[in-house]
């Protein structure tokens, strides 16, 4: 394999927008020289490399759009902390069968018991398996809903959200919501709850939801949609952050 040949191959690959082959051409050719594959095996190797490169590029784009918190790798989950969710249950959730059936997950419990970490981790797992998944807190979602007909970026964000397979709403009802905001939230969830899986984290009871919305009827209607096909995961225990609190002193 001469440098000129490699440059030519990369040039053709670039013109055909085969980004995987453009990057991996040298490795593919070196492997072929070493293993001497048949023509059909070699062509399969080239196409497989391109497909994998494109899938990884799409995965990274979905991961960027999801806006996950830094801590979201469930492989790092600390099972020594007792919060009511067993390792078996977590592994079952990570299989994502509930996404295929458009089921919702409601992670409830006090601060620090792992609600956000679990939700973000399941969102990341969904992305790795090819789903369109997004992580938004309550305030971010309400801002998008309020501005979707005014600001171009909010309109794009809204279009992404309504086409999502999985949406995490972190700290739902953790802030007071105006009547307008409550109606927008209900309209949004009502429009996609049959085709999209929601992961909700909250430290509020249903009664407190009504107070946050200042509308018991609306809160009941919202819960009705979210609980229609759902699994409630009631977490408890001590705050992981407080147990593992950092200090500047040794």
What structural keywords apply?
5 strands, 250 residues, Rossmann fold, 5-stranded parallel β-sheet, alpha/beta
Folded structure, characterized:
This protein has 250 residues and is an alpha/beta fold. The chain folds into 2 domains: 3-61, no CATH class; 74-243, Rossmann fold. Helix content is 57%, strand content 10%. The chain has 12 helices and 5 strands. A 5-stranded parallel sheet has the order 2-3-4-1-5. Helix 2 packs antiparallel against helix 3 and helix 7 (138-147) packs across helix 8. The protein is elongated, with a radius of gyration of 23 Å. It starts with a helix and ends in a 7-residue tail after the last helix.
CATH topology of the largest domain: Rossmann fold
Class of secondary structure makeup = alpha/beta
Named at the architecture level, the CATH assignment of the largest domain is: 3-Layer(aba) Sandwich
Please give the count of helices.
12
Question: Strand-and-helix sequence, N→C?
Answer: HHHHHEHEHHEHEHHEH
Give the overall form: elongated
Portion of residues in helices?
A: 55-70%
Beginning-to-end CA distance, first to last residue:
58 Å
Report the uncertain regions: none
How many DSSP E strands?
A: 5
Radius of gyration: 23 Å
Strand content: 5-15%
CATH superfamily of the largest domain: P-loop containing nucleotide triphosphate hydrolases
Q: For the record, what CATH class of the largest domain applies?
A: Alpha Beta
Q: Average pLDDT, to the nearest integer?
A: 87
**Side-by-side strand order of the widest sheet:** 2-3-4-1-5
């Amino acid at each position: 394999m001469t440098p000129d040949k490699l440059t030519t191959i990369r040039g053709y690959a670039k013109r055909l927008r085969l980004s995987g082959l453009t990057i991996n051409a040298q490795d593919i050719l070196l492997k072929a020289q070493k293993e001497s594959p048949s023509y059909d095996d070699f062509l399969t190797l080239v196409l497989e490399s391109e497909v994998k490169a494109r899938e990884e590029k799409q995965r990274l784009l979905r991961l960027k759009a999801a806006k996950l918190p830094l801590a979201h790798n469930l492989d790092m989950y600390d099972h020594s902390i007792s919060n009511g969710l067993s390792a078996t249950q977590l592994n079952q959730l990570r299989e994502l069968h509930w996404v295929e059936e458009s089921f919702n997950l409601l992670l409830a419990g006090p601060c620090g018991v792992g609600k956000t970490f679990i939700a973000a981790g399941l969102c990341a797992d969904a992305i790795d398996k090819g789903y369109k998944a997004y992580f938004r807190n309550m305030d971010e979602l309400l801002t998008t809903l309020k501005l979707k007909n005014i600001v171009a970026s909010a309109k794009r964000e809204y279009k992404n959200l309504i086409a999502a397979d999985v949406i995490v709403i972190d700290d739902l009802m953790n802030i007071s919501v105006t009547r307008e905001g409550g109606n927008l939230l209900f309209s949004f969830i009502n429009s996609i709850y049959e085709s999209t899986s929601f992961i909700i984290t909250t430290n509020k009871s249903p009664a407190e939801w009504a107070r946050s919305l200042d509308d018991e009827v609306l809160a009941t209607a919202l819960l009705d949609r979210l609980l229609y096909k759902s699994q409630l995961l009631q977490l408890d225990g001590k705050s992981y952050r407080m147990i593992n609190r950092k200090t500047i002193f040794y």
